[in-house]
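Risk mitigation, structural track. In case the binding assays with alpha-D-glucopyranose fail to produce interpretable data, a predicted complex structure has been prepared as a fallback.
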Amino acid sequence: MRILMIASEAVPFAKTGGLADVVSALSYALQKLGHDVRIVMPRYYKIDRKDLIPIPGAMGVTIGNQEYWTEVFESALPNSDIPVYFIDHEESFGRDGLYGSMFEPDFSDNPKRFSILCHAAFQVCRKQQWIPDVMHAHDWQTALVSVLLKFHEQYPEFAQTASVFTIHNIGYQGIYGKSHYPDTGLDWKYFYNAGFEDWDRINFLKAGLLSADQLTTVSPTYAEEIQRIEYGFRMHGILCYRKDDLTGILNGVDTNVWNPKTDKHIPENYTSRSLRKKAENKKALQQKMGLPQNENIPVFSMISRLTDQKGIAELFGPAYGAAFKLCTNLQLQMIVLGSGDRWCEDELRALSQRLPNLRVYIGYDENLSHLIEAGSDFFLMPSRYEPCGLNQMYSLLYGTLPIVRNTGGLADTVQNYDEQTGNGTGFVLDLLSPDSIYNTVDWAVNTWFKRHEHIEKMQKKAMSQDFTWDTSAKKYLEVYQKAVTAKQHR
Ligand code: ADP
Ligand code: GLC
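Fallback model:
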């Protein structure tokens, strides 16, 4: 099958979150199963042209009565021959930041920038004389692809091409004033017909949800949750209506990158049979973060975008968040690696001044994230909602027991501790509140000191979980097939 991924990020070229990991890892897995997969993404300013091969000839992208001249560059995913096409349009992508900057958190021309990406995806295929069977778009930035395919008079060669749209996070929908509608290049009749209209504004995600042949999201539980008012961010009605076309497929883990046995970023490799060696990583981590090197104190860590979705208010909210009480009342060390909301970054810096057992690194650091996974005992992820979540899976594979809220992909991957049997792979809380976080961490600390044999049993079980992409890629192929069939019968 010929599959084109259209995405706003993909590792190793550009990443702000798990989406980037998923786009590339899924592509590798599909290729391994024998399929012809290619990726289209923007050439952001920080992706150096010198590392890419130019495809000769400028490429005109016509949107309504505008024409944008772009260049296309090509590269491949590392250690593979999976083509990645980069759309180079200086005015749109020649700036720092993927979606916004410190001064403008959401670029006001995002509708135009990503509309150019979506239209360009079709042009690249024409240019390469390669028409995909399936166009697989991810999140609101590329939702327009499904709409263009459904109302395809502009792109007749794609009459047989089916569309699949994956929701990685329904909290981001791409909602803008309707003066931006001409950026889509579609006739005004589609403002209503294609479902862009949202309280007289334009909603890219909504149009994608209504237009795609098949929809997926990144865990089975999240697929159920987003059909409910509490989690659907107003899209629950549409998702109930399309429930037969919506599949929850759990993300996998790229075990070439995240594997404690082979991880090149950590001082001591280990497996579930050599867990003693994990202690060496703990020492190295404590030393790096300036914490006392004490094997007998449990280390709790968090690596995260610092946004409301991740439960940061309940953890670090000034005066009421759980962190202060956790670090003062309990015998533990805490490490936070993250960046995001300014208030939270500031609060974390202030807290770490007052609490000698809390160490904070504000920023993005791939290397450190591996050491944290290997060197910690517990991983904090009390998300308000979590479509899938990757870090709890990395944590499980590294024998670092996750403390998670019972939602989305967290519910699908972490099994709560059973005090009677010592079964489980982590500690699960239901209600998101400072007290409930405190009580669950307290429970984990107590178990660590009083029932350490249970901790070891859970670590072994956690490390034996199978999160390889193979299984998930096969499920995507089933969805692609359904999409192709649906398109043929339309
Ligand atoms: P989300 O996509 O919602 O941010 P995921 O758990 O799916 O959540 O993916 C987050 C990804 O980003 C993981 O690969 C995680 O390791 C990485 N990450 C997040 N923040 C940082 C950071 N500050 N430093 C290094 N890696 C980070
Ligand atoms: C989103 C979600 C996260 C998911 C990731 C990759 O950013 O917040 O839960 O793992 O996408 O699908």
